[in-house]
Specification:
Elements (H helix, E strand, L loop, with lengths): L2 H8 L3 H56 L9 H25 L5 H16 L3 H16 L8 H29 L3 H22 L9 H17 L3 H15 L11 H21 L2 H13 L7 H17 L3 H18 L3 H15 L22 H11 L3 H9 L9 H5 L1 H17 L4 E3 H7 L5 H13 L5 E4 L4 E4 L4 H5 L11 H19 L4 H29 L1 H16 L1
Antiparallel strand pairs: 1-3, 2-3
Helix pairs in contact: 2-3, 2-4, 3-4, 4-5, 4-6, 5-7, 6-7, 6-8, 7-8, 8-9, 8-10, 9-10, 10-11, 10-12, 11-12, 12-13, 13-14, 14-15, 15-16, 19-20, 23-24
Length: about 575
């Protein structure tokens, strides 16, 4: 190779291009390393954040286990438990700050989760003031448009969980303070927390005025608020909530055809709240009106528990009006709805069904139905099973023993206790009718003994409505202290209608009449209205028969003879 050729090759531009290519490749490889480092940092941050969150949850769970082992929360005397709780809260706050530093101005899902956990801790620890502060932060987090990684369903589930906890927290404080009659400041704080949580939640999610309008969540929140007000006996506020629900949703104004399935379901939930209100106010007129509307709602699939509540209160409405047959049907439907929902209230409703059945004096045993039969031997229902068996067999001693000894805690139910006296009267009437059936006269003292030793005055109070209703034909002789049953003498009087046909002759028929009259007098009493009325009717029938026979005899003898007989009769009546 010559020197010129060598120089040419050295000065070739391809080397420069190769060097430039190598430099670009080196720069490209450097850029890859930077991205991987950033990704690694992001992954490390995510792992650290997640570890911090779950470490806080573990501390909280450990503290809860210690509290449960020591007798339940809050166990403020346990230093170790308090330390773990405070450490858990600090770890949750640390996770919030970590996410804030990494994502600001955006807000991540762990901030939402941590705030929920802190609210739960504060309420469990009976710290309403601190819970209020954290709940405000939670709502601010939800309403922030920069929130990411949290779905609407997650928000709804989280808020519903918070509302349920607030309601439980409020009711527990009310019950505790009612039992011990002190610590009213803590009770006021609990009520203040409930008001703040519901008011701020309703304001945030209001469908037209809220900063984060969500009609579904607003509606459910209002329903939960209404239920809390009902349980706290705040009827005025409850009426306001119901009015707001109906007005804002416009459900009641829309026609049945225009309502969607969801709207019909919502309307049933509002009706359930209204029925509870009017039932407590004992406004039977409005209660009957709303119950009728609820039963006419078409479409929609309300929760079985909602339907069961409406039917149970409707059954109580029928009971208050002594509509026992309708009450049986309504309680049976309520029982089936509770059973479908898997609610233990089905047993309570089954007791009411048995109660209504007995008051209706129905011959049908409720436990014979296919739906009820599986619960016949339930420990809570066995007493009612025995009660209804004693009722149908008229075993009054066994029946009253179950009630008096409160077997199966039957009498612990206020509603059943309200109808106990009616229940006793019903079975006593049944037993009375059975006892007096073979007798024409029986002493009131004997009847009192048969009715498990009640007073004679109580026996009379049972007999009077039976006689007035026509279920028992007879009278009460208070002087002699006996019940005298009225005997049907129709068959006896028929034998003496036409003496000519009586083979024993007129004199025997007359003697028979006199004997019948004496018998009636001894049974009914000579001066009673019943005897005198019957005697007058028999005399009138006898005179009519005589007149009829005279007219028939005259007609057979011809017109002239009939006229003569008529003139003779007229002269005789005048004389």
């Amino acid at each position: 190779m010559s020197e010129d050729e060598y120089s040419y090759q050295y000065s070739d531009g391809s080397d420069n291009e190769q060097m430039k290519s190598d430099q670009d490749e080196a720069e490209f490889e450097y850029t890859d390393d930077e991205d991987e480092e950033q990704q690694e940092q992001t992954d490390n941050f995510g792992v650290n954040l997640e570890n911090t969150y779950y470490n806080a949850k573990q501390l909280k769970d450990d503290a809860y286990r210690d509290e449960d082992a020591a007798g339940g929360p809050p166990n403020t005397n346990s230093t170790d438990t308090n330390v773990k709780i405070q450490q858990a809260i600090q770890e949750f706050e640390k996770a919030i700050q970590m996410e804030k530093m990494h994502l600001e101005p955006k807000i991540g899902s762990f901030t939402f989760k941590c705030l929920k956990q802190i609210v739960k801790i504060r309420m469990r620890r009976n710290e309403p003031a601190e819970a209020q502060v954290v709940y405000r932060r939670l709502l601010e987090c939800i309403s922030n448009p920069e929130l990411e990684g949290v779905s609407p369903n997650a928000v709804e589930k989280g808020i519903n969980g918070m509302l349920d906890r607030v309601s439980i927290f409020s009711n527990i404080n009310i019950n505790i303070n009612n039992d011990i009659n002190n610590d009213s400041d803590n009770n006021d704080a609990a009520q203040g927390l409930a008001r703040l949580v519901y008011d701020s939640t309703l304001s945030l999610f209001h469908p037209t005025k809220g900063s984060c309008p969500t009609e579904r969540l607003w509606f459910k929140t209002n329903l939960k608020y209404g239920q809390l007000l009902y349980e706290n006996h705040e009827t005025n506020k409850l009426q306001s909530v119901i009015h707001d629900l109906l007005q804002t949703s416009g459900l009641e104004q829309s026609s049945a055809e225009a309502r969607s399935f969801s709207n019909s379901t919502h309307l049933m939930e509002i009706y359930a709240l209204q029925i509870q209100l009017y039932s407590r106010l004992e406004d039977n007129k409005m209660l009957r009106e709303i119950f009728s509307k609820a039963m006419q709602v078409q479409g929609g699939i309300p929760h079985p528990r909602t339907l069961a509540l409406i039917q149970e209160l409707g059954g109580k409405m029928h009971m208050a009006s002594n509509e026992y047959e309708a009450a049986c049907s309504t309680f049976f439907q309520a029982f089936k709805s509770y059973d479908e929902a898997g609610d233990v209230a089905r047993l309570r409703c089954l007791k009411y069904l048995v109660l209504a059945s007995m008051l209706d004096a129905s011959s049908i045993n409720p436990f014979d139905s296919q739906e009820v039969r599986p619960y016949k031997k339930d420990p809570e229902i066995v007493a009612m099973t025995n009660l209804v068996d004693a009722f149908h067999s008229n075993n009054i001693k066994k029946f009253e023993r179950i009630l008096d000894k409160n077997e199966g805690k039957v009498m612990d139910d206020e509603f059943i206790r309200e109808y106990t006296s009616d229940l006793r009267r019903t079975i006593r009437k049944q037993v009375l009718l059975q006892v007096v059936q073979p007798y024409t006269r029986i002493s009131l003292q004997a009847l009192a003994k048969e009715l498990n030793g009640i007073s004679i005055e109580d026996v009379e109070s049972l007999l009077v409505p039976l006689i007035l209703d026509g279920k028992l034909q007879g009278r009460i002789d208070q002087v002699e202290g006996i019940l005298v049953k009225t005997v049907d003498f129709g068959s006896m009087s028929k034998a003496s209608v036409n003496p000519a046909e009586d083979p024993s002759g007129p004199s025997d028929a007359k003697d028979g009449k006199d004997k019948d009259k004496e018998k009636k007098m001894s049974l009914l009493g000579a001066n009673t209205i019943t005897f005198r009325t019957m005697d007058a009717i028999e005399n009138l029938m006898s005179e009519v028969e005589k007149l009829t026979s005279v007219i028939a005899s005259s007609a057979s003898q011809g017109p002239e003879k009939m006229q003569g007989n008529s003139e003779g009769m007229a002269i005789g009546s005048r004389g």
